[in-house]
Amino acid sequence: xxxxxxxxxxxxxxxxxxxxxxxxxxxxxxxxxxxxxxxxxxxxxxxxxxxxxxxxxxxxxxxxxxxxxxxxxxxxxxxxxxxxxxxxxxxxxxxxxxxxxxxxxxxxxxxxxxxxxxxxxxxxxxxxxxxxxxxxxxxxxxxxxxxxxxxxxxxxx
Length: 157
What we know:
The chain is 30% helix and 31% strand.
C-alpha cells in the first residue's frame, strides 16, 4: 500500500462502507490492521501532510527532449572518478554531452549517484580538465531513467 493510500485511510477519509463499495467494483485498497484513525482534525491534517512530503510523493521525473538532441550532437568520451569519504571507489568510462549552458549530460540508467557526484571529490575527466559538480538532476524518458544533467562547480546557474 502506498503512502498516500495509508494517509487517506489513517485520516478516515475513506470509511469501511466506502472500502466495501470499492471492492464491489474491483477497486481494492488493503487496509492495515494497525491503522489508527485520528481523533482530531489536526491529527488528520498531519497524517496527510506527512504522506504528501514522503519520498514517493515528492520525486519528480523530469523529461527534456532538447537534452537528447544536445547529447547526440555533442557526445564524447570521458572517465568518471568516483570518491567516497576520501577513498577512490570507482573509475569507469562514460559518454557525455554538453548543453548550451555548459551543463554536462551523462548517459546513466543505474541507481542514482547524485550524492557521490556532488561530494567535492568525485570528478569527470574530459581529457582536457577535471570537472567537479555542484548539482545533479536525473532525466527520464517515460519510465526509463536515461541521463544525469550535471551542473559544474564553476557554472553560474
